């Protein structure tokens, strides 16, 4: 995701800013830039691409100065290019921003009425203009006034040409840390960026601000009231920090899910009217109402998300859906009727089979909608319209947070289409209100990680696993099995629970762990029977049940309880313990879970 570095001191700052950006590269980015304060003005240099390119390009002679800010951008609003890169300068103000300004369109209109002209497509540029508009001689006061007009999230670093040596930082929802040095002070979105200079840091909380100069750090809140903050000592090394203190990116990403799911629905739901707005879809109400059939194209984990989408869209939006392996679709002669849309789901947006399947669908006249994570990726660019899942960079090869964000977007799409067809506002309201509680419920599951570790210890040396589920939990069974085989190399199969008796039941004996998803939903009564079938053959039952369920618990060897939620949202919760189980088993077996053998993060070859 995006990264911020700010430094004010007495030495040339450009090389230190570049070094700080390099330390943030692991977070993923698509463009970068720096802004330096100089007598009589600001000097900004930015570009698309890697830090090493920025470094080569930088007019070093012209970038001299002892106070500046820098940024790595991972595109959200607007494609990755030089104009959209940060810092954004407007007149005497330069700003680097992480987060999303949700009301940027209305702010922009107001500023345009005052004569402001905008160069980029970003929400951040609007904030730079707003701060300039509010400026009357004291930068922190202008920032405070501007932020009071803003809805959304931010971690920002701001400089003004008339206030040498001063950097103002503010935080709401996007991390910001102050590095306290000697004769120099630092600001960053991530300690990794400043660890080479100081280990003394102050973590800002939401609604707090800081003004740093070479010899001073002043913390306040957005109302300009002084806030006393503790200076903490960093004891971690760089590698640990980049992984947020976790041993692997995969577990970091699993733990990010309360936040990433929130980021997927933030600004897109209207809980009071039970409706959804997906700006990137660019379809009129008439077009939405006239979708006759949906084909979902995807591979791997994204294909599993597509299967969940099939259950949701057919059940609640009453639209026929087919989910296709992209690699199969592209070599068939698929029938595309008028009114067919193709949803292409891909975390990376670069998977070649998915891309080629989408191109084939387009050639055959389908309208194509991309659901991707990486902004500016090929699928995002080539689909006619789309929705970004906003999960942030996913580094672990086994996909986790992208899956739950994809399912969140498919849930939103279901409500959007359902409301144009048959769904009542009351139903939409109920789902969207509950969706807002899902991050908290997922956090509850994450807090049970040690309980799942104990189950992993019992089964880590088994050679086979079976995963069973029904309804929208069937794709979760597939996903649980995929996670396990991807990173621990244990053979695992996911099956629709009732289908077990047509084959896999032959494998069940006391050595076969069977993970059964039995949350209390529409399939509950049926799946109870399937659990009995496993038990009768002495298979080891690890059940995922709704809190308080004693019936299935009595039949199980191990029980994982999930908080109660709506049927429609259950897959978002049931997948979490399966991700954790796969992770713990792989780690106990000594595997490198981030780089499993033979697998790639983005498969760009057929
Ligand atoms: C690879 C990855 C999987 C991913 C699949 C599809 O196989 O290892 O984790 O699910 O590609 O990737 P996409 O980027 O298209 O979602």
Description:
With 606 residues, the protein is α/β, with parallel strands linked by helices. Helices cover 36% and strands 23% of the residues. Helix 3 crosses helix 4 (123-134), helix 4 crosses helix 5 (139-148) and helix 8 (257-265) runs parallel beside helix 14. The radius of gyration is 25 Å and the shape is globular. The mean pLDDT is 93. Bound molecules: 6-O-phosphono-alpha-D-glucopyranose (G6P). 6-O-phosphono-alpha-D-glucopyranose is lined by residues 299-302, 346-348, 351, 354, 397-399, 599, 601-603.
How many β-strand runs? 26
Distance between the termini: 28 Å
**Which hetero ligands occur in this complex?**
6-O-phosphono-alpha-D-glucopyranose
- Mean pLDDT, all residues: 93
Structural class: alpha/beta
Number of helices: 21
Overall shape: it is globular
- Our estimate of the beta-strand percent is 15-25%
Helical residues, percent: 25-40%
Largest sheet: 8 strands, antiparallel
